[in-house]
NPS3A protein (Copsychus sechellarum), 223 residues
Amino acid sequence: LATGPRQNNGIFYEIRTYDIKPAKMKEFLEMMNKYLHIRTAHSELVGFWYSELGAMNKVLHIWKYDNFAHRTAVRHALANDKEWQGKLMSAILPLVEKQHNEVAYLVPWCQLGRPPKEGGVYEWVTFQMKPGGPALWGEAFRAAINAHINTGYTRLIGVFHTEYGLLNTVHVLWWNESPDHRAAGRHSAHEDARVVAAVRDSVRFLESQQNVLLIPLQCSPLK
């Protein structure tokens, strides 16, 4: 993270989280896999997942926009897309209990990555940092992330810093071959003095943390 502008262009990511009615998750996922191509015709989808551990009956999807004018144009087009409104929106809204969205930027030292192969699992880690922004905790946070990368047990996909939503929030998206592979890697990392030192320095600025294990949908570009 940086003390100045996060990036030299207007690209941002909208992170949308939906709470699905417990008895309706299967129906929701089937509808999304069948009709999401209507939505992705309008703008780029980064990934679409459902929660497996750490949260229940939630889906998370990330959309990429060139700038805010681009998002406005897309939202206007969707409102007037009869196929989107008729085939999907009217069907899924009764299945959703709550919606939440955030706007976030990739941090300057991270490019959006991809897993080395399909078939793994994703981990969505949300860090609520102390007020003050990256000028206060950015360097220590980056060091902690790099310490985990250097262990080699996990693959970093992206680090997102909120612009709209709860501020001083950082979301980190990781990929692992399996939950067991992740567990073994975490165990080894906790015994690595470099990781321990970096994390200890970073947690001075941490208020809370939540980890969610995510499974990608069939329609997700990241899977």
